[in-house]
Description:
Blueprint: H1 3-52, H2 59-63, H3 84-99, H4 104-110, H5 112-131, E1 137-140, E2 146-149, E3 162-165, H6 173-179, E4 188-191, H7 193-205, H8 221-236, E5 247-251, E6 258-262, H9 264-294, H10 298-309, H11 312-321, E7 328-332, E8 335-339, H12 349-355
Helix pairs in contact: 1-5, 3-5, 3-8, 4-5, 5-7
Amino acid sequence: MKKNDTKEVQVVASSTKLIDEINLNLNEIQKGKVAGITKTMKLIDQFYRLDEMKGLITASFFNDELIKTNSFQSIDFEKQKQNNNQRYKKFVDLCLIPTLKTSKDKMAEEEPFKYETLREISQSLLNCLKNKIISYNLETDKTGKQVKNCFTNPVGSKPVEIEIKTSIFNLDKKLSDKFNPKGSKGSSISFSFDKLKNLSQSMLEGISSRAGSNPDPTSSKLAEDLEEMKTEISSNIAFDLVDFNATKKVVDPKTGKTTEVADKEKINLQKQRREKQVENFVYVVEETISKLINYAEFKAVQKVALFIATNKEFEEWQRKNYETYLGFNVKFGNQLQKVSINDLDLTNQKAVDTRLKVKQ
């Protein structure tokens, strides 16, 4: 073999090895992307089921100035469409992140891809929560237990698709023409993640939606500052958790044996940090209520009192630990009777006035 031929063989061998490495990397990337899309889709299902279990923390989100409602079904995304991106972000910051018991800043700084993923699913998840579009089938798992499933079983290197109810297209021809052009008569159609995102945008904002830019004439510098403060409190206040099971390793100087014992110093330090955080936060709350009272905003103070009085977790804690309880009473003859406020819609001032018997 000639010298030049040897070089050509070496080049071919090297290039073949490099091509094999490229293909190996591509295979790994493909597996990662397929797994990533599949897990992202499953997050939508998991948050959806969590909401059905009343597990989503929604109070701050529903009370936000851009939302002002008491349910996902009531949110109007076609009103002031220019604010929808903010609404989707607030859904993540004020609902999903608090539900995960962390803060927005912590997640955005320390786990940015988690935050990015939540932002990516926010619109689709809101559409699922608002319009109840996910179709579930009962299946039997390996243990023989029946479980609900809303995903396809893809063959080959493809991510799962989510089953969407075909009934949503019956009353909207434009939606049907765009997303069910073949007129499928089955109970559900499988959608990819990208197709689900397109469907969600169309359902929430309208098929030919374009956001405008009309400034809010009721806004002010103070309102904007308070809006930032509200978002900061709602999304970034996450009190430190106390690990009562914290341990440390101790070496016996005589035997050299290592044992684990309760780390009382660490536990006490965590408790002290938590107490200081709560103490400072209570000060903010008290000053806020005091400010409302000073400016005679008593309706707002009433909302705070009602919010506390109607919170089931607080009510249960109060009843368990005290012989008295917080509530509103009405004088009936010579006796005081408790007014039922558990089902009161705090966003409806007329309903509040009626239930609490406003004086005419």
